Amino acid sequence: MKTKVYSVLWVVLFSIFSSFLSSEMIPVEDLFREPLFNTFAISPDGKTLATIADCEGSQNVFLLNLQTNEIALLTKETSDVDSVLWVNNKRIIYTLSNKKDDARSFDGGILAINIDGTELRALQEPYGSQVSNGVAFKGETIDIINRYSRDDDYVLISSNKRRAYYPDIYLMNVYTGKKKRVFNNPGKITAYVSSPRGSIRFGMEDDIKTGESKKVWFCNDEGGWELLWEYNDGTTYAEPIAIDDAKNIAYIQSNVGRDKFAIFKFDMTTKKLDPTPVYEDPVYDVEPQSIISKFNRTGIAGFSYQADKPVNVFFDDNYKNLQVAIDEALPDTYNTIYSKSEDGKQVVIMSYSDVQAPTFNRLNLATSEMVHLSDDRPWLKPELLCHTKPVEWTARDGRVIHGYLTLPKSWHEGDPVPFIVRPHGGPWAREEWGLTWHYPIERQYLANRGFGVLEVNFRGSTGYGKDHLLCSFKHPAKMNYDFLDGALWAIDQGYANPEKMGIMGASWGGYATMVGVTKFSDVFKFGVNFMGVVDLPMHIKRYLKRDKGTEYKTAAYDYWCQRIGDVENPDELKMLEEWSPINYIKNIQGPVFVYHGLEDQNVHIEQARALVSALKSEDKEFEEVIRVDEAHSTHFENDRIDTYTKIDEFLRKILTKK
After folding, report:
1. Average pLDDT over residues 21-39
2. Closest CA to 453 of 495, 396, 516
3. Residues β-bridged to residue 529
């Protein structure tokens, strides 16, 4: 592949690039401000790119004409645009997000607009709002499933118009908003899987009250529904992830009868699942994060998943060869086909690494020319950042724990550095390699300030198999000892200065932070707690209060009782009290930073209030930041920058303390 790289002149609209001074200290503003662009989506004919970028404080849609390189603002929303979908060459659908919701999440607003700015149509009402750009909405919850290949004036959607929790399938005209029901929900299906051509073939039925039972239904060629599989424990199941119309097969993600998820083929003619995996990984769950479809929209070329680093898997040799050529042209990053034209002549490639924030290139397959579009954070220079490597250590009971180590440029063998352990949130989630959004950028922030960083995928973390998940249930002690053992490993390896060992995390990671500075205070000398639980029984009981009067009244409560501890069982309540940091505040030996959002619906503000009250009562050193407008996040850019500026001052005292 010959490569021609040049930058499209976005600076006409965005003159916000930062220049670094001679100092290598990266400003907080550059680390934690919003990215320049959030997406690049190419039109079916390959002539226009849609992207999302800031306009007067809100994320909006811009269009780039690929023939003229002219860029134009398309939308003028005051709420953030969250995603964009081309439905044909002249019209897009975009979704709105709630500025006060967690991590700028989808708030129900769906609109359609022509690329010349005409025929704006509201397709769904945003939650809590009746008007957008002067267009009134009608109340209804719609999910866009797929483009409809037989008529590009339509998209396939699910809608709860008839029943609140069990949507039906409709075709919706993207110009008029009119809908035609094409499938009635046969029972209690909550989600559907369609083929690339727009045919519904699978439905998933989940217990909305507990989330622990699941049924998978198959829609045959006559439109009838057949029950394929039923599962009842919430952790063992098979579910379809993609359909190959050309071969009449589906790809199934399953851990039934095995520890780790693998990919299997399902024959949609015989309705039989091949018992031999198409692809499996001996260490990691194979849970596809993106599906790579063929250019003709009739087949599946491959998928990507997270191992210690992201992995691309291909079923098609042509796509495999294309990936090899892309990787040869961009050897220092993980690269994936992010968007493509219908005919396959134009593709957008997203690339990133541990020191490179996402960068986007357009590849013309007819000429083999690659055009650099933009970086999403061009002010973050890779040469100033620190490499992150996958590591593992053995916990005290022999279990292998995985994580990621980032060392500052100041580290040298035999010269341990100040150190911070970062347990992740969830807790049923995991850390990943790569500089993809502001949470992993935190590792670079800390390393740039001179700290070594160890991120811990403690037991209970997803992606490492069923056993690694299940062995955490009702064992917060084991989960907590995993990050303690990680800290001791870092000291033993010569990475960490034991006199300046701290812990920092958000949500469950905030809980782990408070466990660290209270239960393991001889190791963890300071902590930074974002939105962390300090009283487990109080947190679990809060779910009943919050969900009162809804279908989900006991769902979260039961979920936490089953996985962490039952507050109605005396023995388990005693265990929950034992592992509640609020009961050990007197043990804290160093300063604590406390952050919480007043509108947090995941961890109630009462947790922060109880913590602050106890810290004051025990005369402990702490700093407190309570954000009135934030939920379970540091969503607002100004709030985020201000918070990390305060953390900067907090950590500087740690570094300079003798």
Report:
1. 83
2. 495
3. 505, 594
- Closest by Cα among 375, 471, 470, 461 to 423: 461
Handedness of CA 23, 25, 29, 32 (dihedral sign): positive
Alpha-carbon span 61 to 80, nearest angstrom = 10
DSSP, collapsed to helix, strand or coil, labels residue 96 as: strand
Contact 280, 260 (CB under 8 A): yes
Percent of the chain exceeding pLDDT 90 equals: 72
Write the CA distances from 85 to 80, 172, 634, integer angstroms: 15, 14, 27
Q: What is the pLDDT of residues 142-162, one digit of tens each?
A: 889 888 878 889 999 999 888
Decide if 107 contacts 97 (C-beta within 8 A): yes
**Taking CA 356 as the corner, what is the angle to CA 355 and CA 361, rounded to the nearest 5 degrees?**
165
In the sheet with 168-173, reading across from the earlier edge strand, the strands are 142-147, 154-159, 168-173, 179-183
From the options 3.30.1490.20, 1.10.10.10, 3.40.50.1820, 1.10.287.370, give the CATH code of 385-535+580-656: 3.40.50.1820
Write down the pLDDT at residue 208: 64
Total count of residues recorded for the chain: 658
How far apart are the C-alpha atoms of 173 and 157, rounded to whole Å?
10
Q: Give me the pLDDT at residue 439, please.
A: 79
Q: Is the dihedral of CA 424, 429, 435, 438 positive or negative?
A: negative
Is 100 in contact with 86 (CB distance < 8 Å)?
no
C-beta separation of 292 from 300 below 8 A? yes
Residue partners of 261: CB distance under 8 A and separation at least 6: 253, 254, 255, 285, 286, 287
Residue 248 burial (10 A CB sphere; 0-12, 13-18, 19+): middle
Whether residue 137 is predicted with pLDDT greater than 50 in this model: the reply is: no
What confidence score (pLDDT) does residue 438 get? 72
Choose among 599, 597, 585: nearest CA to 634. 597
Span of 364-368, 391-395, 512-516, 618-622 with lowest mean pLDDT: 364-368
Q: Which residues have a Cβ under 8 Å from the Cβ of 266 and sit 6 or more positions away?
A: 240, 249, 250, 251, 252, 272, 273, 274
Question: Where do the domains of the chain lie?
Answer: 385-535+580-656
What DSSP string runs through 362-415?
EEETTTTEEEEEEESSTTS-GGGS--EEEEEEE-TTS-EEEEEEE--TT-BTTB
pLDDT on residue 21: 32
- Structure tokens of 536? 């487990």
Per-residue tokens: 76: 């003028």
Secondary structure of 304-333 as H, E, C letters: EEECCCEEEEECCHHHHHHHHHHHHHCCCC
Bridge-partner residues for 527, per DSSP? 503, 592
Q: CA–CA separation, 64 vs 58, rounded Å?
A: 19
| Residue 361 in this model has a pLDDT that exceeds 80 | yes
Q: Which residue has the higher pLDDT, 11 or 338?
A: 338
Question: Rg for the chain (alpha carbons), in Å?
Answer: 25
Q: H/E element holding 283?
A: none
Q: Give the tens place of pLDDT for each residue, 287-332.
A: 999 888 887 677 899 999 999 999 999 999 999 999 999 999 999 9
How far, CA to CA in Å, does 386 sit from each of 22, 168, 332, 412, 435? 18, 49, 14, 13, 11
Across 303-313, b (16+ Cβ under 10 Å) vs e yields bbbbebebbbb
Q: pTM of the entire structure? A: 0.91
Strand order in the sheet with 91-97: 81-88, 91-97, 106-114, 121-124
> How confident is the model over 518-540, as pLDDT tens digits?
999 999 999 999 999 999 999 99
Q: Side chain identity at 405, as an amino acid letter?
A: L
